[in-house]
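User: Predict the complex with calcium ion.
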Amino acid sequence: MKTNWWKKATIYQIYPRSFQDTNADGIGDLPGIIQRLDYLAFLGIEAIWLSPVYQSPNEDNGYDISDYQAIDPDYGTMKDMDTLIEEAKKRNIKIIMDLVVNHTSSEHPWFQSALHDPKSEFHDFYVWRKDIDGRPPNTLQSNFGGSAWTLVPELGEYYLHLHAKEQPDLNWENKMMRYEIYRMMNYWIEKGVGGFRLDVIDLIGKEPDQLITKNGPKLHELLQEMNQNTFGEYDLVTVGETWGATPEIAQLYSDEDRDELSMVFQFEHINLDKQPGKRKWDLKTLDPKELHHVFSKWQTELTGKGWNSLFWNNHDLPRIISRWGDDQEFRVLSGKMLAIYLYFLQGTPYIYQGEEIGMINYPIKSIDEVDDIESRRMYDERISLGYTEEEIITSINAKGRDNARHPMQWDDSKQGGFTTGIPWLPAGDSSEINVAAALDDPDSLFYTYKKLIQLRKELSVITEGTFESIQTEDAAVLAYIRKHDGEEIVVVVNFSNKPARFLLDATQQIKEILIHNYEKEISQTLLPYEAYAVLLT
Ligand code: GLC
Ligand code: CA
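Assistant: Here is the predicted structure with calcium ion placed in the model:
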């Protein structure tokens, strides 16, 4: 296994709109991120995944780009961006750009040209098909609901959009388009960014006529071509958002010898509270043992063959403590348990802003409170299908993306120190959950994350060791062991709010407690959400 900086590093995701506002317009901005770099350096992270800050009409908050080489005025200027890269570098932090190249905004000049002039060279940058008897070319559905095809009556053609109609899909069959994208990526590489997070990258090899969207036949060829023409020669990190990856597919993306990406960011564990075959909105109760099974599978099947991301949260997911922990009585304890379980696995951990202080979901009562395009589209669709208002709001409260997008809570002042103006999305209750309080409390979740990040830098067993699951009798107790070069770490967590039992093998002697979320001896009884990691002799 090669030693790359990103194997021991922890990456912090910033959703710029909600991180820190500096000019009172209620929208987070680049100067705000610069102001908070010391905080991030103190936490110990080594890279920032920056959600899109490019020029955008913001139909999908920046995941609809109208100019890849301009900064949206909401966030600042290109000069601010250069300053951010430079200031981050001084603190040993790299900036990872979010690369959204499956689609552009419908306001991108390429699409505008394609739309108004079918003879333009840009027309073929997108995916167009004729109607079939007045109907869309086929049944492909958008990820946000409804048909993936929209008719342009003046052209008599439909264009493909696997997300909103304001996000037309690029045609990766078109070589000129691909080289324009590579040129743009090289522009960012020359600016000194630390890498790219590749948005829905598993979609670029699509074969729409055969109803293939994910993992199309040309996907890996395309990624190899991208690698050769852009980041291949540099020491950059590249992480692909790959919803449909299995460990075998993950290997194709991230095998060191294949020259594609550094790692995948896959969601198998995240989907475990979804009813099989249904959309994410259709919930079922999480079974901790099933969760452990999925993690164990990835740990054993990808090791030595590829690289995975470790995460509970991002800007598309509800807050993990509300989801699988307890956001009331055991907020901090359950947050620590979740972190301890994840941080001794092989892979690269990602923290989503606010996760390190245990931010929780923001429940809504009515659709008027929702900004997110995905939730709004789902609402309209399900209302027309006859779902009740109550059912839909329950789904949005459980899974809606806005849960993660309410402003970062810096202190207990009005608007949580995020803005002195009116935030674009209301601020949650920051009276207890905020950065200032977390920094003041040596027992806070923040210091658990800081410690875990540090341990990952120090103990190579975490990055390089083998993984074995430990059998446990109690349905809520999850345990595993990592081994490398005579070093052994055992991790035990109680994934529930009730006491449980677990006995370490009598032959296993504890040499050192690396981390433990209760101040008590390690014994057979695990208290609610108790979690520890120990080094064995
Ligand atoms: C990815 C992003 C999500 C966005 C979608 C379309 O899944 O994470 O926020 O809406 O792609 O770009
Ligand atoms: Ca602002």
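The CA atoms of residues 330 and 497 lie 8 Å apart.
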